[in-house]
């Protein structure tokens, strides 16, 4: 498949790896976008958006990005914080009084953002389609007892993150998370990025290529869930109202819902341009989102130091974003970590989508694809593009680890 778009000579290596993804690594359709100093230096796309119909990927093709959505949701919280409407050190119950039930009265807003709250899943069996009922999910989360003592450990809140942060946004602003995101971020930044997809855009979306079985996609987490359904992994994978059923995430019901943890739809340009202001100090083109102190706070490690209670592999988080984590020492099926620089922060989607800002490199990056690969981190296709971007910037790394200047 031919590759289309823009690539400046300095980043020819990104184009070469993108072409290799399509030719050698099983890529079906994808896009990659990169800015440096606020300027676009890579904007490439290629392959098939819908291999069944033979529809090609174009410059405006978008698809489901799973948990790479969380960067957009986290940024909404940071916007409210910098405006003085949300205190990240305050108890969640200050804004959402019902949340104080179940021994959660001392859980802090920051612990929702950095995955320490102990609410990645629920004990009560969720009915089919539960994720499409906002009131149901937020009532369950408000009443729930945490699966571990909040603050004692961290574990990826893949599905619940959007409801937890989104309800704070709703309580503060009076509107939905999707409405706030559109008004304050997607609109002003001119992003093709939706937390709720209008029905007239359904046909334009690239459906996910049939994904691997969960036993292949996230093997250790899946095995733990099967052998110990009461574990955090079990609560996440086995109690999601059918959301992980093949094709469900591409359904009209899923696209119409507000799923700030896992339901975003965009392309590489949308992801990269979302992070563009954060890469250059918090403002771009006269639009200020955050000040430099807020950008630093968003990117500082907040939870780490032990195995992730949900994914059962090492992970590191800042307040709402993933940080670099080298998991190459693990068995092949669990190796996918996050290998960028220590100053970078962003979010990865199950199967490979990724977006991040690197303020030290003054770079923003986005990669989106329709064929999922293994893991919850960056797999070989995305990592090859990230590596080429850092090489173009003159960065180095030791023994294949994180990048440094």
From TrEMBL:
Pfam families: Beta-lactamase (PF00144)
Residue intervals of the Beta-lactamase-related domain: 17-385
Domain of life where this protein originates: Bacteria
InterPro entries (UniProt xref): Beta-lactam-related, Beta-lactam/transpept-like, Beta-lactamase/esterase
Name by which UniProt lists this protein: CubicO group peptidase (Beta-lactamase class C family)
């Amino acid at each position: 498949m031919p590759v289309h778009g823009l690539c400046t000579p300095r980043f020819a290596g990104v184009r070469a790896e993108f072409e290799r993804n399509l030719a050698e690594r099983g890529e079906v359709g994808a896009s990659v976008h990169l800015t440096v100093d606020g300027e676009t230096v890579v904007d490439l796309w290629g392959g098939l958006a819908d291999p069944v119909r033979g529809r090609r990927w174009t410059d405006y093709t978008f698809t489901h990005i799973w948990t790479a959505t969380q960067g957009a949701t986290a940024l909404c919280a940071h916007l409210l914080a910098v405006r003085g409407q949300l205190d990240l050190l305050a108890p969640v119950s200050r804004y959402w009084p019902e949340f104080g039930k179940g021994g959660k009265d001392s859980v802090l807003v920051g612990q929702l953002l950095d995955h320490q709250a102990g609410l990645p899943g629920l004990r009560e069996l969720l009915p089919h389609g539960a994720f499409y009922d906002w009131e149901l999910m937020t009532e369950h989360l408000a009443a729930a007892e945490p699966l571990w003592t909040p603050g004692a450990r961290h574990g990826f809140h893949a599905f619940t993150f959007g409801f937890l942060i989104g309800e704070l946004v709703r309580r503060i602003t009076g509107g939905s998370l999707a409405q706030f995101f559109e008004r304050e971020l997607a609109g002003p930044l001119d992003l093709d990025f939706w937390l709720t997809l209008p029905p007239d855009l359904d046909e334009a979306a690239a459906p996910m290529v049939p994904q691997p079985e969960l036993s292949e996609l996230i093997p250790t987490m899946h095995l733990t869930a099967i052998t110990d359904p009461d574990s955090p992994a079990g609560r996440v994978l086995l109690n999601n109202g059918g959301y992980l059923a093949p094709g469900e995430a591409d359904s009209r019901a899923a696209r119409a819902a507000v799923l700030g943890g896992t339901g975003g739809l965009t392309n590489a340009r949308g992801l990269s341009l979302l992070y563009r202001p954060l890469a250059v100090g918090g403002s771009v083109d006269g639009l200020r989102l955050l000040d430099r102190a807020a950008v630093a706070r968003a990117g500082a490690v907040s939870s780490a130091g032990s195995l992730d209670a949900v994914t059962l592999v090492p992970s590191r988080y800042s307040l709402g974003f993933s940080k670099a984590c080298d998991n190459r020492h693990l068995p092949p099926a669990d190796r996918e970590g996050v290998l960028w620089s220590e100053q970078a922060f962003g979010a990865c989607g199950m199967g490979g989508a990724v977006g991040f800002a690197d303020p030290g490199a003054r770079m923003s990056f986005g990669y989106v694809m329709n064929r999922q690969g293994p893991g919850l981190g960056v797999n070989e296709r995305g990592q090859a593009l990230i590596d080429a971007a850092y090489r173009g910037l003159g960065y180095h790394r030791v023994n294949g680890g994180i990048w440094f200047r």
